[in-house]
């Protein structure tokens, strides 16, 4: 029964406040074990991929994949999170405005293999960020407001190449006992969203 969460809305201000207050229990210092376990599924024998991290926060996996020779692109609402990512990994970066996105910024490692967009994910399009060979969705779909899932899924489908790999992590629990996020997304809904 996902009806109990259907109308729940977490505002952009609430997400920014989580970062400001350090209320980021969703951040994993060591990276996610499922990415390590299913890395071969994501890469599918390919090298030099463009990998997308929706709602990336300061995910340590971004540097890990970049160090393997992949190009990483993330999007995050919190500028604090983006700057903490570069700082915590001692990565020099440059910052520039994204003309197509009002108030949008892009932070890029000076090596060029990590680009993090600071804006709403819904401001992105393939004309701005290009297309991707892989997606690591560790906490994005479950963080998106339930009413926005269709819009989110459409964007993700639009951002991936035909032969891409999409790794998605969800959580399973009784949605009547927790208001979310993370939100409960039943498998049937995932199938209807992504086909």
Automatic annotation (TrEMBL):
Catalytic activity: S-adenosyl-L-methionine + a thiopurine = S-adenosyl-L-homocysteine + a thiopurine S-methylether
Organism per entry: Vidua macroura (Pin-tailed whydah)
Single GO biological process annotation from the record: methylation
Annotated positions binding S-adenosyl-L-methionine: 15-26, 55, 76, 120-121, 138
InterPro entries from the UniProt entry: SAM-dependent_MTases_sf (IPR029063), Thiopurine_S-MeTrfase (IPR025835), TPMT (IPR008854)
Cellular component GO terms held in the UniProt record: cytoplasm
EC number: 2.1.1.67
Protein name per Swiss-Prot or TrEMBL: thiopurine S-methyltransferase
Signal peptide: none
Pfam families recorded: TPMT (PF05724)
Protein location: Cytoplasm
Gene3D superfamilies the record matches: Vaccinia Virus protein VP39
Keyword terms, alphabetized: Cytoplasm, Methyltransferase, S-adenosyl-L-methionine, Transferase
A GO MF term: thiopurine S-methyltransferase activity
Family: Belongs to the class I-like SAM-binding methyltransferase superfamily. TPMT family.
